[in-house]
Write a structure and sequence with these properties.
By secondary structure, this protein is of the alpha/beta class. It folds into two domains: about 170 residues, NAD(P)-binding Rossmann-like Domain (Rossmann fold); about 170 residues, Rossmann fold, CATH 3.40.50. Helix 1 packs parallel to helix 2. The strands form two sheets. It has an eight-stranded mixed beta sheet, sandwiched between helices. A seven-stranded mixed beta sheet has the order 9-8-7-10-11-13-12, with helices on both faces. The longest helix has 22 residues. About 50% of the residues are buried.
Length: about 375
């Protein structure tokens, strides 16, 4: 199979979908890998390293035009929609439930779109989303600590406080992978952390594994409103698999937050779990609503591309290799987790949550 790796063009997106080591594994398996010149620059992987690993360095048009499968990090932007075609497999983060224009473009083109974020194991875990959730969760606290500083527009609070001075109050909504890692880092910095989730068993588990100034609350509108009002830093880490994130934090709740408090909405890729959220970029990352600073960058892990690229490539490579070795139909029929990753195929939406989001027809994935 011919596998293409284009350079990411999203604002300040420095990740690349595969390391030179991953490319070498594919080449050793007998596949032809086309890498766009400069694709790895942001992650400090040189063209020479890719060439040494066995890749052919080509132009962006050749990557998209010649490849049977294109492997990316982020969803195709409008400038890339022209490359979508019916005989192409696109394997990347898609987040279609928050991207209606892209959804229509993919259906119209007939491209087979496999979303990293909906590949789901029998236990309900999302193996290709997990490493980026880990990165985003940990980053959210670094970012939050920075924007709590007064010169950045925040409340001027030190996360861990000092003797005789209370630490910052960090509220995390969602106890999944991102929320857990956010809480872990915040506790490590000495903050007072409150985490809310609807799953009481999950809260019990987190009570056992996390230590420090930590409390868990059952997630409901009353408790969310109470927690948000006291937050210096609010982390939105809610995930509904493949669907748009629910707006758990209302505009009214935001208006009642303390002046110059900070919101970091990790769920922005799926539309955000805060009503006032709108996607921002690394070059223009923040905005204020009712005196509350919002950081809603839709590709947070792109700021730490060396770590993120290694983490992503580690988990995607086995699936990429399976698709390349077996072909799309055989690979998907033999792997239920991978089959759940398929969002569009032959001009149809084959992932139900995406179809429901936009009130579009849903078709079960079938092979003739």
């Amino acid at each position: 199979m011919i596998i293409g790796i284009p350079k990411e063009i999203k604002d300040n997106e420095y990740r690349v979908s595969m390391t030179p080591g991953g490319v070498n594994v594919l080449v050793q398996a007998g596949h032809n890998v086309l890498v766009e010149k400069g694709a790895g620059d942001g992650s400090l992987f040189t063209d020479a390293e890719y060439a040494k690993a066995g890749a052919t360095m080509v132009s962006v048009d050749d990557v998209w035009g010649q490849a049977n499968m294109v492997v990316k990090v982020k969803e195709p932007l409008p400038a890339e929609h022209q490359y979508l075609r019916s005989d192409l497999i696109l394997f990347t983060y898609l987040h279609l439930a928050a991207a209606e224009e892209l959804t229509h473009a993919m259906v119209k083109s007939g491209v087979t779109g496999i979303a990293y974020e909906t590949v789901e194991l029998p236990n309900g875990s999302l193996p290709l989303l997990t490493p980026m959730s880990e990165v985003a969760g940990r980053m959210s606290i670094q970012i939050g600590a920075r924007y709590l500083e007064r010169p950045e527009g925040g409340r001027g609070k030190l996360m861990g406080g000092i003797p005789g001075v209370r630490p910052a109050n960090v509220v995390v909504i969602g106890g999944g992978v991102a929320g857990t890692h956010a809480a872990q880092i915040a506790l490590g910095m000495g903050a007072a952390v409150t985490l809310l989730d609807i799953n009481i068993d999950r809260l019990r588990t987190l009570e056992n594994i996390l230590s420090g100034n930590f409390s868990t609350w059952a997630s409901n509108p009353f408790n969310i409103e109470r927690a948000v009002r006291r937050a210096d830093l609010l982390i939105g880490a809610v995930l509904v698999k493949g669907a748009k994130a629910p707006k758990l934090v209302t505009r009214e709740m935001v208006a009642n937050m303390k002046p110059s408090s900070v919101i970091v909405d990790i769920a922005v890729d799926q539309g955000g779990c805060v009503e006032t959220t709108r996607a921002t970029t690394h070059s223009d990352p923040i905005f204020f609503v009712d005196g509350v600073l919002h950081y809603c960058v839709a590709n947070m892990p792109g700021a730490v591309p060396r770590t993120s690229t290694h983490g992503l490539s580690n988990v995607t490579l086995p699936y990429i290799l399976k698709l390349a070795n077996q072909g799309f139909q055989q690979a998907v029929q033999g792997d239920k987790a991978l089959a759940l990753g398929v969002n569009t195929h032959e001009g149809k939406i084959v992932y139900q949550a995406v179809a429901e989001t936009f009130n579009l027809p849903y078709s079960e994935l079938k092979f003739t």
